[in-house]
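As a warm-up, study this chain.
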Amino acid sequence: MSNIALGRYLPLDSIVHKLDPRYKIIGMLILLTAIFIPAGFYGYGFLALVIGSVVMLSKLRFKFIVTAMKPMMLMLFFLLVINVLILKTGYVLVDIYGFKIYSGAVFQTLYISIRLLLMIMVTTILTATTKPLDLTIAIEDLLSPFKRFHVPAHEIAMMISIALRFIPTLIEETDRIMKAQASRGVDLAQGKLKEKIVGILSLIVPLFVSSFQRAEDLADAMEARGYVPSAQRTRYKQLKATTRDYIMIVVVMLVLGVIITLAVVA
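Now compare it with the structure written out below.
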C-alpha cells in the first residue's frame, strides 16, 4: 500500500513545482481536452512526448508515474476482453477454432487505454508537483467568479482539500488493518475465491467504520473551533502569476493547436 502514488506530493526543486497552481490546473484541463481529440496514433505519440518532457522537467521518476498507472491495468484488461467479445469491426487478426478477434476491437482498446494512461500521467504530475493547500487555494480562486451564480467555491475547495489530505491517512489505515488481519490468519493473496471475498470484506468494513469515525471527529473539531463556511476570511498566502506561468499556458495552447491540426488532417 505504501507504493500507491495517487494524491502524493513530492517536494522536489523543479520549474514545474514553482508554477502557479491555478495555471497548472488550467494547463491540465487543456491537455485533458487535447487527449480526448481523436488525433490518431501520431497525435497520441506527440502528446506522450510532451507529457514525458514535463515529467522530466518536474524531476519525477518514471517509476513513480508507472506506479500510479498500476491500478488501471486490471480495468484495461477487462476492457480488452469486453471489446474482443462485442466489437466485430475491421479485419480478422486471429481465428482460433471459430473464435475471431477483429482489428477494430484491438484498435478501440488501444485508443481508450492510451487516453486513460495519458490522463493518469497528467493528473499525477499535477498532484505530485502541487501542495494540497496550494491546490485548494487555486481551485477556490478559479471557482470564485461563479460565486455570483451561488456556486459554493470555498466549500468545494475545502472538500477537495480534505479528500486529498486523507488519502495518505486512509492508505496507512488500510495497511494497518491488513497487517492486523494477516496476524489473525487472513490471507488476501492465497486461497479460494470465496475466502478472498471474505478477506476483502474483513478489510472494507473496519476501513469504512474508521473513515466515518474520522469524518465525525473532524466535523466536531471544526464545529468546536467555530468554523463557518460562508464567513469572510483572509489568506496568509496569495497566489501571483509570473512570466513562466504565461509561457506555460502559451506552450500548452500550441500543443492543443497541433493536436487539432493532426485531427483535421487525419
